[in-house]
Design a protein that fits this description.
The protein is mainly beta. Among the domains are: 96 residues; 34 residues. It is 15% helix and 41% strand. It has one helix and 16 strands. Strands 5-6-7-8 form a four-stranded antiparallel β-sheet, with no helix packed on it. A four-stranded antiparallel β-sheet has the order 9-10-11-12, with no helix packed on it. Strands 13-14-15-16 form a four-stranded antiparallel β-sheet, with no helix packed on it. β10 and β11 form a beta hairpin. It is elongated and about 55 Å long. One of its GO terms (molecular function) is ubiquitin-protein transferase activity. This is F-box associated domain-containing protein.
Length: 218
Amino acid sequence: MGPMFTVGNPLTQKEFILIPKPGFIWVDNYGFYFDPITQNFKILTGPFVCVHHTCYQVYQGIVVSFDMEKKVWESISAPIKPAECLSCPYIRDLNGELSFTVVTRDWKAQVWVWSAEKKWVEVICANFEKLDVFDTNNNRTCWIGETFLLRHKEKYDTYSLKSGQLSTFDVCIGDIVMFRPTLFHCCKREREVVSTKKQRKKSCIQVFLLFLLDVVLL
């Protein structure tokens, strides 16, 4: 009984390593980590949010973290007490930093960031009292550029950091997930394409000059 994990390269299809079964029957969410130095595999279960090599989870008003490299657990006090929250807290990776988002009982959407000094820094405090916010327990938050979005049911409430304006628009789509580039960069690819075009043009000119030289010699 229980899940089975195998590790391998799907491109070569040569070798797949079977990892020993973990001590749980069912898992809905899990994180996978590989240490290239020690060549050890680590599996962490639960709805964790991973920032760099540390995984975070909110439990009863406490942010629990686990460092995958140091194998160290740590508890972080939330920036606001659970009794003051109208919505469930929501944590996510915000530009490489852990963020903590919540709607308070006085209808304020607050976003906090866990700084390098190991303290919470408030970056957004928007008053949502004028908006028709209901099902806050099932909300989803997103921060795009200078706009903060709070989703509940079939609509989004937005707050502009630049103008301070609040607005609402209806949607019929799923959650908005922020795109984060990995190893490839569009600008770099464009430069490579331009460079390739220049090389092709240069090669064509060289071939044409050689052709003219052959014609002259003939």
